[in-house]
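Predict the 3D structure for this chain.
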Amino acid sequence: MIENYKRDVLRYYQKRKAEADLPPSMTDPTPASLRDECLSVFQERVSDVDDKVLRGFFGPLQKIDEYEGLIKRTDLDKYKPLINFLRGQTSTTEMKNIELLAWLIDYQKRPYGREEINEMPTNKEQGRQVNPSPPGEKKSKKRAWVYLLLFIPIVAALWWQIGPNESSPESAVAIRSLLGGGSEDCMYWDGERYKRIACEKELPDKKIEKIDQDKLAHFRKITDTDTLTERSIGKVWYTTIRGVPEYYTQEGFHPVYASRRLKPLTQYIINKYVYKTIL
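Done. Predicted structure below.
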């Protein structure tokens, strides 16, 4: 429910504030500090997911990249309802203000309703009976099972002959793959790089995904920021997670927060986080 979402966003803000995990502009916000924080967040970690948030608060634009100029031009009075709500001067506020707050504090379940978009309810949740599969579809499934049962003994016989033969590793891997075991066609993120793993294996708190040879070979997290200079521009991508910058060797999406697109490294980010010349 929407009220639960509003409550959760506010609680998350209060939690981060109590833990001193917010920038000064958010602990005791003013209209000007909120405007500046919007600009900072936009420059550091805006993603396509946030288009709905920006559109709802600042107004519609054709491209998400155009919002920086609109943020700079927005009347500061527009931020006052959110400030009054955070200070407890009002008990409620419009949804667009809640969504802006969720964006500024990086509340991961934003915007409202995002988690339900791709969920398929079960028959009980729908409260109605789903139409049965067409007869032709049932026959196709039955035929597929028959073919599979005929195919397994043939593959097993080949495995019996090829499996012990170490002189044919490629053939052995192919047979094991057909039998559903041993082929390392998947990968997982270990915190700094992708590593190969068999698809049937499970690791606690790790997402097993289909292998991408390019990512496996080249996608890395840069942990030594002393190596970042102006020469890194055009070769390094970044994002910030809860205000902390992360740098990567390839473009694409964050390996853990998959909705967050990595942005090209800029001189502004180098000055702010590497040289720390911008406060």
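Residues 110 and 272 are 27 Å apart (CA to CA).
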